[in-house]
Amino acid sequence: MKKDSLIKGTLILAAAALIARFLGIFQRIPLEHILLEEGMAHFAVANTLYLTLLVVATGGIPSAISKLVSERYALQRPEEAQRIYQAALLFGLVTGVILTALLYAAAPFYAVHIAKTPGADLAIRAVAPTLLIFPVIAMMRGYFQGRQMMSAGGLSQIVEQILRVIVGVGLAILVLAWGWGDRWAAASATFGNVLGGVGAFLVMLWFARKLKRMDAKDPVAQRSEAERAEAKAAASKLPYRSIYREIFKMSIPVVITAMTVQLIYMFDTSLLIRLTEGWYYKDYRQALSALTEFSFKAQSIAGIPPILAIALSTSIIPVISSAYSLRNMGEVQRQTSLVMRIVLFTGIPIALTLTAAAYSVTGFLFSGPSGSGIVAALTAGTVFQITMMTSNSILFGLGKPRLPMKHTFAGIGLKLVLSVALAPLLGIYGLILASTVCFIVITWLNLDSIRGDVKITVLGRRWLPYLATILIAIAGGWGTEIGVRKLVHSWPDKLEYLTAAAAAGIVIGVLYLALLIVFRVVTMEDAKSFPGPLRKLFMKLLKPFAKSAQS
Questions:
Q1: pTM for the full predicted model
Q2: pLDDT tens digits for range 56-110
Q3: How are the residues of the chain apportioned to helix, strand and coil, as percentages rounded to the nearest 5?
Q4: In this structure, how many other beta carbons lie within 10 angstroms of the beta carbon of residue 36?
Q5: Cβ atoms within 10 A of the Cβ of 246, count?
Q6: Taking Cα atoms as reference points, which of 283, 30, 49, 36 lies closest to residue 183?
Q7: For residue 378, which of 473, 295, 487 has the smallest C-alpha distance?
Q8: Contact (CB, 8 A) for 404 and 446
Q9: Residues 6+ apart with CB under 8 A from 282
C-alpha cells in the first residue's frame, strides 16, 4: 500500500465528503415520505444534537494527532508516534463513554424542556451509543492522516454513510410495518448511525492491519531488539499529560471554528419552537412544520455549496503556511488572493443557483415544494459561510488560529442576540437572518486581520462587473425556472421539478461563464493561476477575447 500524496489525499477526502453529503440527503428523502411531522422532528433534533456533540468531542483533535504523528515519523521516532496514538485512543474511549452516558441520561429533559419536542428522547437515546464508537474512529483517522493514508478515513466515511442510510431507512420502514408508530420509527432511523459507526470502525481496523504489515517491512523496524527496546523505554517516559497538553493547544481553536455551523444549527433546531412562539401565535403544529422543513430539507440542501470550499480550505493551509514560514510574502499574497477568487468564481454561484431554483429542487428531492422559501433563505446564506470557512483557513495558514476563534465567539454572540430579537418578529427567517449576519461578521473580521499581514487583491475594480454578472445570471435562472414550470405544468410533478431545476442550472451556468468573460471579470492572468481544470476551461473561453484585444 503506497502512501497517498497530498493532492490525492485531498481529492479522496473531498470526494468522500461529497458522497457523504448526498447520501445524507438521500436518507432524508424516504424518511420524509414515510414519517409524519412529529417523527421527522424527532429525527432532526436527535441527529443535530448528536452531530454537535461529535464535533465538540473530536473536531480539531484528529488534525493535531496527524501533525504530531507525522512529525515523529519524520524524525524517525515511531515509538513516540505510537505513544501519542495510544493516548489519543484512550482519550477517545473515555470521552465516548462520558458523552454516551450524559446524552442517554439527559435525553428526556432536553427533548421536553429545551427542544420542546416531547417524544424525541427515544431517538436521542437510540443515537447515543454512536458516541462510544466515533471518538475512537476520529482518533484513528487522525493517526492514518499523519501516516499519509487519507484513503482510510475516506473509505470509512463512505461505508459509514452507506450503512447508516440502508439500516436507518430499512429499520424505520420495518418498525412502521409492525405498527409501532412514528416515535419508534424515528428512533430506528437514528439507530442507523450506530451500525454505520460499526462499519466505519471495521474499515479502520482493516487498514490498521494493512499498515502493521507495511511497518514490518520499514527499515526502521529492522533495528536490533536492543535498539527497539531502548526506543520503547524512551517513548514510555513521554507522559500522557504532556501529550494531551500539546494536542489541546493545537486543537481547541480549530474545534471552536469548526463547530460554528453545527452549533448554530443545533441552537436553531433546539430553540426554534420556543423562540418563534410570538410569530406562530403559539400554533405548535405550524412551528413544528417550520422545524421539520428547516432541519430536514433546508439543512440538507444548504450543505452542498460549502463542500468545495471545505476541500479547498483544507488544501490551502499547508501551502500558505509553508510560504509564510519562509517569509515569502509575495507567494502568500498570491495564494491568499487566488483562493478567495476560486471561492468567488465557483462556490458562490453554486449556492445562488440552488437558491434561485429552490422551489423545483425542494419539490424534486422531497414530497413537495413546501418549505422552499426556507431552503432558499438558508442556502443563500451559505455564500458567507463559504467565505467564513476560507478566511478561517487562511488565518490558520498564517499561524494565527486564535484570531478566527475570537471572531467566532463574536459572531456567535451576535447570532444569539439577533435570534432572540428577530425570531418572534420573523419566525424561522429571523433565525436564518441572524445566522447570515453571524457569517458576514466573522468573514469581515477575518479579512480585516488578514489584511494586517497580507494585501489581498481579489477582484480590485472588478467588483461591480462581478456583482452584475451574479445578479443577471441568477435573475435569468429564476425566470427560467418559473417559465419552464408553467410550460410543463401538465407533466408529472417530479419530472416538472427536475426539468425546471435543470433548465435553471443550465441558464445560470451559461450566463455566468459568458458574463465573466464579456464583463472582463476574469482575465488571462487570473486563468493562468487557476487549478488545472478551471485553467483549461477559462483559457479556451478567453482566447477569442484576447485575440480581439490584440487586434
A1: 0.76
A2: 766 678 877 877 787 777 777 788 888 899 999 999 999 999 999 999 999 999 9
A3: 85, 0, 15
A4: 15
A5: 15
A6: 36
A7: 295
A8: yes
A9: none
